[in-house]
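Request: Not sure, any thoughts?
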Amino acid sequence: MGDILEVAEALWNGEKTVYTQHPFGPPWGPEQISEKTWFIKGFANTIVRSTPDGLVIIDPAGSVEADKKHRAVRSFSQQPLHTAIYTHGHVDHVFGVDRFLNEVSESNTNPVQPRVIAHEAILDRFNRYRTTNEWNRHINGRQFLGGGKADFPSEFHRPDIVYRDQLDITVGGTRVMLRHARGETDDHTWVFFPDEKVLATGDLVIWAVPNGGNPQKVQRYVGEWATALRSMAALEPEILLPGHGFPIIGKDRVAQLLSETATYLESVYDQVLQLMNQGESLDTIVQQVNPPEELSQRAFLQPIYDECEFLVRNIWRQFGGWYDGTPSHLKPASEDEQSAEIARLAGGAGQLIRRAGELANEGNFKLACHLAEWAVNADSDNLEIQLAAADIFKKRAGGETSTMAVGIFRDMARRLSESADQEAPGETVIKSQMNQG
């Protein structure tokens, strides 16, 4: 058993937790999982299946891992790439094919011409990414860097073959089953190799609360996600290779993970729809919906990337539109106007930021952040208020578990502290602390 499988075993048995051994983190690299299948651990994972006619590679590489993943493949196999499969169009999954195409162009033999297969909706995704490239740089900067702009590609290797509902192919006598599911994305594919009972889920499994609520990204599909997990379980896979995180080995463990993740999603989904059908507002629903307590203890269902509250909001968005059921939110006064009036009632922005600090010291960061924002908006030139608010948001980020929340709160802290720095270059304490963190 190699390092990757050892960590997987320790996580499953409770000897490690995802809070200290993050599933998106190391150990990196390739590890053989079965006689013909290799798993390459990265930020996003790559699955390689050997056949007599060449390699089937699922999610060849992310945009920043292409060379690394290609070297990893060539560390255990010199077979040509026959078929690449994109499980979906996120940029951490759809790069690296060109490295194998370069091998074909440089070869003097008659190698296989690689092909790429994906769901047909991926084409619209790639077009949208080109149209909103700068927006994606902003939101990925917030999500992964805590602010600023992240690199985001605008050109993609488009698939040679697309399918709609399902597709079965044979490569070197090996049957490969591709099935479409809407879950994290509308273009998702999960893949099953019947001969070895190996299931490649893409990001339908990520060793965390499913990424079905991401507040900065387009619509996700919680109900259909659960249905897909149950369809996978019906095939009785014995090995599960996720899009992020660690392999699950053993029929019983795979069945448990798939069924319990489906149950988690179904519970949240059903609660939201029940309350919506009763005419409740979004705020009421957010406060009342909770996942099953027992499942919330599972190592593979921790809120380290996404979280239940965000799932609730995305289910509302899918069925309820953007109006949240609170009449004053339909056509609200500007946030600056609201903040100015609240500050006037409170006795000034200084009173707001002082009370925000008190609430933060008591651990009530939700309310503290409201007051801090009102204070900043009401007195936007006050450097002391900006720095105090930055400190509150920085502390809140430090107490959050999900990547989504941490990134957004860190971004706010950084923007406030950098804004103050531009006007008062000597005030760099908060910024320095954030850079160290």
Observations:
- The chain is about 45% helix and 15% strand.
- The domain at 3-265 is CATH 3.60.15.30 (Metallo-beta-lactamase; Chain A).
- The longest helix spans residues 251-277.
